[in-house]
Amino acid sequence: MANILVTGGAGYIGSHTSKQLAASGHTPIVYDNLANGHRDAVRWEPFEAGDITDGARLREVIGLHKPQAAIHFAGLIEVGISVVDPAAFYDTNVNGSLTLLRALVDAGVGSVVFSSTAAVYGQPQSVPIPEDAPSAPINPYGETKRAVEAMLGYFAAAHGLRYAALRYFNAAGADPEGDLGERHDPESHLIPLVLFAALGQRPHIDVYGTDYPTPDGTAVRDYAHVCDLSSAHVAALDYLAASPEPLIANLGTGAGYSVRQVVETCRRITQRNIPSQDAPRRAGDSPELVAAVDRARERIGWRAQMSDLDTIVATAWAWHRAQAGE
Ligand SMILES: NC(=O)c1ccc[n+]([C@@H]2O[C@H](COP(=O)([O-])OP(=O)(O)OC[C@H]3O[C@@H](n4cnc5c(N)ncnc54)[C@H](O)[C@@H]3O)[C@@H](O)[C@H]2O)c1
């Protein structure tokens, strides 16, 4: 049907989305510098190596493939690293997005879907968090994403660029067919870390904070299956093809699970011993981050279909076992 430029398509969410784009009849044009992505995760060709801050290379690739729209996943994602190296985050996430938007507008590519994050909300006043809650990031990572959301708004006003900013909560799980999964390095996400402990690749899982005002005292997060996130991107493309109205929408389930619930679910599904160790709270962690999900349902007809915790953990477990050669 259409060529879709997928920046960061060699990464976790971008590779799963490329698979769904191909299944929907589109051709994903993956643009990635492989800083954190994997060449073997680009299974739905073509692959174009390039840096998101390289305007000349972006123009070349856009000129060659003439995409109808772009999905912009490329970026640095590790909150802790953003605190010690904010310049790298401003360069890749803000300057890189600016470079991409300029190239898209110059080439007449009229629509972009952007990977935003719950980190734009910072420490929310209450949950579930609606999209019109104040944007108040508490780290450079969230700040760069907020900056790009603002940039998209200004490009829309000035150039008629159509955009969707999708604010993911916690992406988790793996392709149920086993083609793809999560391979961050360093890994900081809870579910893979718990599964590494199940595989004996880590001695235990640290539980940061056991005295939060939550039912069991541990932090609560909203986990969405990566394949559900992928289908939201395909739905957002359809939306943008039909509507000039910008879309800013949370992607989550509206249900939260505590760290202890996640660890227990992993123990039950893996049937392995998973030692855990209580640890102090980490600075900047919110007690509870849960998405209000009405807007995505109303505007793009999206609702998580396979994001129950058992499915998330079972698909991730199959992937990590295979990676470990079990
Ligand atoms: N994983 C999550 O839970 C989560 C939550 C909220 C938002 N997000 C956002 O979703 C997007 C994708 O996240 P992910 O988990 O798939 O991360 P990822 O690290 O697996 O994928 C990011 C991709 O971007 C590429 N990249 C990095 N710098 C680049 C550059 N300078 N030029 C070209 N490519 C570059 C990497 O090589 C990688 O393939 C990111 O923008 C992230 O901020 C992720």
Task: Give an overview of the whole structure.
This protein is an alpha/beta fold and 326 residues long. The chain folds into 2 domains: 3-172 and 223-251, NAD(P)-binding Rossmann-like Domain (Rossmann fold, 3-Layer(aba) Sandwich); 190-221 and 254-323, Alpha-Beta Complex (UDP-galactose 4-epimerase, domain 1). It is built from 10 helices and 14 strands. The protein has helices at residues 12-23, 55-65, 79-84, 86-107, 140-159, 190-198, 226-242, 259-270, 294-300, 309-323; strands at 3-7, 27-32, 47-49, 69-72, 111-117, 162-168, 170-172, 205-208, 220-221, 223-225, 247-251, 257-258, 276-279, 288-289. The strands form 4 sheets. It has a 7-stranded parallel β-sheet with strand order 3-2-1-4-5-6-11, sandwiched between helices. The chain has a 3-stranded mixed β-sheet with strand order 12-9-14. A two-stranded parallel ribbon has the order 7-10. Helix 1 links the parallel strand 1 (3-7) and strand 2. Helix 2 packs parallel to helix 4, helix 6 (190-198) packs parallel to helix 8 (259-270) and helix 6 (190-198) packs across helix 10 (309-323). The radius of gyration is 19 Å and the shape is globular. The N and C termini lie far apart (39 Å). The chain binds nicotinamide-adenine-dinucleotide (NAD). Residues 8, 10-14, 32-37, 51-53, 73-77, 92, 96, 115, 117, 168, 170-171, 184 line the site of nicotinamide-adenine-dinucleotide.
Strand and helix layout:
Blueprint lengths: L2 E5 L4 H12 L3 E6 L14 E3 L5 H11 L3 E4 L6 H6 L1 H22 L3 E7 L22 H20 L2 E7 L1 E3 L17 H9 L6 E4 L11 E2 L1 E3 H17 L4 E5 L5 E2 H12 L5 E4 L8 E2 L4 H7 L8 H15 L3
Parallel strand pairs: 1-2, 1-4, 2-3, 4-5, 5-6, 6-11, 7-10, 8-13, 9-14
Antiparallel strand pairs: 9-12
